[in-house]
Design goal:
about 400 residues; 10 helices; alpha/beta; six-stranded parallel beta sheet; seven-stranded mixed beta sheet
Length: about 400
């Protein structure tokens, strides 16, 4: 398609699904700004929408999830309970205080930053390259870092085209959770572990991971925080579910590790003593029957922290020998590790199974204006199980 700058009409060939699609000159989007008075403001902004270059497309965004990884950009560590209404009727906003000031946030002071890691919608205009034109009229999921908006111009490499009939609601969450869950299993295999542990088993990502592990015959220990979540996972076929709120948690964890042989865990909690508890339980299993060694077992135990639901310090009580590691794990470096062919293989699986293995569920649907309503903010920012929010920018 060739952009015309009078009227911004982007014309398509006659045999394409999209024709005479008019691209708006501006789009409404959500932005976050930290100010030196120790506060963060979330506000609706009206911004220019660029016409697509050769390898770009314009997506009419119909859905975008709020993932835990979005909260840092949205709120910059603010006290959610302090949030209050700001802005006006046309461009609503909300403002919250950041406890302890803005130390460590200097790089974003005074910058109005777009937010939202992923989304889904329909391609309404394309650039002139074959790759861009092939997406005309298609529903795609995409990454951009600015998906809480009505429209977005993005490179085709950031898009994952869906099969015909896929809804934008399903496409919206095709990157962060699906590729993270697949990446955990791939990392387990690359590092020669035989099973894995996931401490937020009842989350959307946890349910995806459980389905992957069942399909791929991977031993998985699911940890949940409530008794009712044990039943939730059992109904979905999970073999090993451990309730961290139970008095028998450590013994139950050891039993599950003994059966699965899991020696790698992916921890979304981050703070507190969970990582230490996991290492201690793994070491207990690994040491059973071994001759005593002051250095512990030779079995390597790995904890990867990939989230920060608890922002407190990670505490390690050294009761797990010397063969262990704790480190960070992020999706983008992992995808670089497996290369383009590996990433394409995972993306293809996600597109094929987006309504089954990688299906997401939501506890609330929010318009753009509702994302800055303090009542809704206090709800979705808690990230409680079953309360995940889906932003619907066209509402």
């Amino acid at each position: 398609m060739s952009p015309s700058h009078d009227g911004r009409s982007v014309a398509a060939d006659k045999d394409e699904e999209v024709s005479d699609s008019t691209v708006p000159a501006t789009t409404l989007e959500l932005r976050s700004m930290v100010t030196d008075d120790g506060a963060v403001t979330l506000a609706m902004n009206r911004v220019d929408l660029p016409l697509p270059e050769a390898d770009e497309v314009v997506v009419r965004i119909e859905a975008a999830p709020i993932n835990p990884s979005d909260l840092g950009m949205l709120f910059a560590g603010a006290d959610i309970e302090s949030i209050e209404t700001a802005g006006n009727v046309d461009l609503p906003a909300a403002r919250a205080a950041i406890p302890g000031g803005v130390a460590g946030l200097g790089g974003r002071l005074g910058l109005s930053m777009p937010v939202g890691n992923e989304g889904g919608g329909t391609v309404v205009a394309t650039g002139e390259s074959a790759a861009a034109r092939a997406l005309a009229g298609k529903v795609v999921g995409f990454l951009s870092g600015s998906t809480y908006a009505q429209y977005r111009t993005v490179n085709v490499a950031s898009c994952l085209p869906m099969h015909n009939g896929t809804r934008a609601d399903d496409a919206a969450a095709c990157f962060v959770n699906p590729l993270t869950a697949l990446g955990m299993v791939e990392t387990m295999r690359l590092e020669r572990h035989s099973g894995l542990v996931h401490p937020v088993g009842a989350s959307n990502l946890g349910l995806m991971l459980n389905r992957i592990c069942l399909a791929d015959d991977v031993p998985l220990v699911n940890i949940v925080r409530r008794a009712e979540h044990v039943e939730l996972l059992r109904v979905q076929g999970a073999h090993h579910v451990v309730d961290s709120s139970a008095a028998t948690f450590f013994a139950d964890l050891v039993d599950a590790l003994r059966v699965t042989g899991a020696t790698i865990a992916f921890d979304a909690i981050g703070g507190g003593e969970l990582a230490s508890t996991l290492l201690a339980a793994m070491e207990k299993v690994a040491s059973e029957g071994d001759v005593f060694s002051r250095y512990g077992s030779d079995t390597h135990k790995q904890i990867y922290i990939y989230g920060g639901l608890d922002r407190g310090p990670t505490t390690l009580n050294r009761s797990f020998g010397m063969s262990w590691s704790v480190g960070g794990w992020l999706l983008t470096p992992f995808l670089g590790r497996i290369g383009q062919n590996g990433a394409n293989r995972l993306r293809a699986r996600v597109a094929d199974e987006i309504t089954t293995t990688f299906a997401s569920t939501y506890g609330m649907r929010l318009s753009l204006a509702q994302t800055v309503d303090p009542v809704h903010v206090r709800r979705y920012a808690r990230m409680a199980t079953g309360e995940k929010a889906l932003v619907t920018p066209q509402a």
